Amino acid sequence: MLAASAAPRIDPKKRAVLDHRKQQFAKAQWVEQDYKHRMNFYTVPPTGDVTLEQFEEWGIARLKVLAELEACQFRNKSPAETEEYMRPVMEKHLRLSSNRSRSSELAMERKKDHYSHWTLRLAFSGTADLRQRFARLETQLFKLRMQQDDGVEKKAFIDSLPMSWETVGDEEKSRWLDELKAATSVSKTDEESWFKVDWEKVPELVERRQVLMKRGTAYVHVREQVNMVVSEFSRTLESGLELAARFLPRMDEDNRLSPILHHLSQSFVAPDAGYSEASSISDMASINAGSIDALSENFPLCMRNLHRELRKNSHLKHFGRLQYTLFLKGIGLSLQECIVFWRKSFKLIADGNKLWDLCFTIHALTLCTDKFKSEYLYNIRHSYGDVGGDANRRGKGYTPYSCQKLLTEALPSSGQNHGCPYRTYTPDNLSTLLQSVGVSDQKLLREVRDDVGKQRYHIACNKVFESAHKPELKKVQDQKLWPASELDTILHPNTYFKRSFLLKNLGKVQSGDIGVDGPTQQSTE
Amino acid sequence: MPHAVSPSSEGGSSSVREDETMSDAPAQEADVQNNAQPDAQDDAGSQGPGALPTTTNATSTRLEDMFDGDDDDTDEFSSSAQSKPQDSSQPAPRAAPKAQYSEPDTLRQFYQRLFPFRPLFQWLNHSPTPQPDFQNREFAFVLPNDAYIRYQSFATADLFRKQCLQMTPTRFEIGPQYSVNPRDRKTIRKASSFRPVMKELVFDIDMTDYDPIRTCCSKAAICHKCWQFIVMAIKVMDAALREDFGFQHILWVYSGRRGAHAWISDKRAREMDDAKRRAVANYLELLRGGDHGKKGLNLRRPLHPHIDRSLKLLNPYFQKEVLADQDPWESLQQAEKLLTLLPDKSLTAALQKKWDSTPTRTSNQRWADIDSVAEAGNLSTLDAKKLVEVKQDIRLEYTYPRLDAEVSKKLNHLLKSPFVVHPGTGRVCVPIDVRRLEEFDPFKVPTVTELLREIDEWDAKNRGLGERERAKVEDWQKTGLKPGYVAGLLKEEGRGKRERHEEAGAESMEF
Known about the structure:
heterodimer, A: mainly alpha, Transcription Elongation Factor S-II, Chain A, four-stranded antiparallel sheet, elongated, disordered N terminus, B: alpha+beta, DNA primase, PRIM domain, five-stranded antiparallel sheet, 24 helices, 9 strands, globular, 4 iron, 4 sulfur cluster binding (chain A), DNA binding (chain A), metal-binding (chain A)
């Protein structure tokens, strides 16, 4: 008999229902969902309207939270530390109130949580690597929130989930009580309540012999329920991401969302940080060409390295100059002072008194006048938005480069020094460089080497920062001088500088007396 | 190549396992009879080949030149009478054993006449018609020149048999079923789409892991005394797999020299991924590598029901097989080891003192000494309850199964197939009936040469029978292999099928 004829015929009316995609889009469901629980399993995609700005903003906010969570993990924080660290971060970016709080923002918060999850799900479904990372972090976030959740609401949420477990009845319980207790190591104070699942659902508990096994059924204690929910969440999310990846090509037709999604997924390499005007310290201290040398103590390694190279060779190649100029602009150096700074830096060649310097003198002098003016000067002014392009559109020129930018751009070739040294230097050279700027802690150097090996460049940089400012950070934390959000992971060289500068001048900032040491006379050349 | 035979016609051959396996034999015999082509029986012995064209064609050429094909219609009197004494199976006792077991001729005869390809096929295929279960299954051959060929796969059992006859592998291993035919693995575009999808859950117990605790033999050698460790292991594992995990189709196989393999063919077991396999393996594994020494086993108390049950199962064995037979702490040096397992200084000091004064004590006595010395008040850090726990740990250390767990943890791990010949000993890797576990004697498992000789002897003895009668007797039926060993596989396979609800019961046995 032919196999095809053996298949039971499906009633035509019923058959239409089988295609879930058709079912899903059969009638437009562009409705706002109401969120009964604080937690969300994210099984249903959002169907309400959302503006493009919200789409991106919410995604970025969630990304920030996930990035901080990952940073905690990279720094081997204990669960308790992580929770403490994450609380203000989540409060700031992705607040979720409980039902009890009766917050008026409740619906909005939950909508934001829901939509941002789906935004990122789209953004990170592209490659297997991103999917895996996203699923891991989302699972952690889910777990973290689960722990913070109120007991009653947590129970209500768990009960609302379509999980395939069955509570162990009283009769069965009394029959196996001793074995149940022995298997699940229940102490006297614990609740005597178990549920049954197929053992395949809880392999990690079986592996540790934490469940009672009876003919393929695992008897699990209720305290494991949260873990099971979390692993179920992880499972559904992983399969959901695979599914999203398959639908991703459809997005190509939408030229509004693709750039946003691309940008978001890029941000995952190192979370992007926008440059904010607040990174400048020009309001606290006057910065001029002469004070850069002193301030370079507070520069992050990428900029400090450029500064050292500049001082050593009296020259920097184009991309190094660009990176450094923008950074200097970011810390509050004015255009005029910046031009002075560069001109003086290049001119130093002529002041050298070694024999071969003579050969360069003529060249350098020419450089000062012609080449500097024609090329370098223009570039500096261009960076500041003083010249070039359409005057209406150039605004304030380029923004200073973030860590993400430095970590994703092309690697420098020989003679170039731009980029993030944690990425561009070999581990040995990096150690030498760090030691030459005063990092001598062997343990820290080993950790840096380890992080760099795992491509966690910004984590390594943050560790160096924390080590360099240990006493100040402790003081700030102990006295709660700064809000916690000011102590999150550094993702921008200018943030690094600002924070470093403020910490080193902790007492002076408060008394309003910051004098930057060094020559203050203005060069008028 | 099923040819029916009436049970009564096999009385002449000597069978080591016949008596033990007869209990379930009648049912199996009946099955085998059903399977045989009735017309082959009815027509005539000379027409036999016609009933099974493929197999007979494949074999007949070789039957001609070296053997009297019993279902062949050549002049059997002359050929059988002359060829048998010089047959390749005959010089067995004189030749060096190892070379001879893996002699291509011997192996070819083994595969041709004895190896149960059909049952093996059914066991792996889970259906009468070839399925991807079998067709995409990896086989790995170890050739007589020690070459190792992986990723072999076969569309049917006959093709499999053909290649075995051609290559005469000294042994072959069974791997997982892959998502695509393993032979085509290089032609697919994406390497990631070639992945293992299912395999039986397997366990490997090897006597070498028992070397720290056995006193009778070491390395590859085994004796009846230390075989008891395998018996204990099978008991404990079988109980756990059946009662805890609910597996039903568990096939235990003697590995040919010094251990046993378990093949679990339940659908649920076959479809497990690596994480689940690891979970099962770790659930069952208690003694991880080497000496545990003072640390003990770090078991939670109260004991997990699985360990508790295992301990109850093992207690009688500890008294007899370990303390009495192995006598692991007989000499003073050996007793040192027992002392290191006791984490109480004053207890060990008191025991040491006692044993120094009476150096000749059996392990049984030393074991009893622990309690008597402890009762005399020589405990410092331990209380009576803790001492019981320490003693439980020691008992487990000396009796609990020692698994080669890595084999079980990976879906794509290969394991030697049942029924192949162990190249070192020449013994056939026969299934072990767990219900008659104690009766299984690894030294009575037939070697390939013995089996071939048995065929020859049977043929010689029954030369008087007519052609027709002789044609009805399968080669394996003339040997000690009948019928229990093959029945073991058939039984597992038959049950597996019923579970799948694919075919009607009668139909399922037809092949």
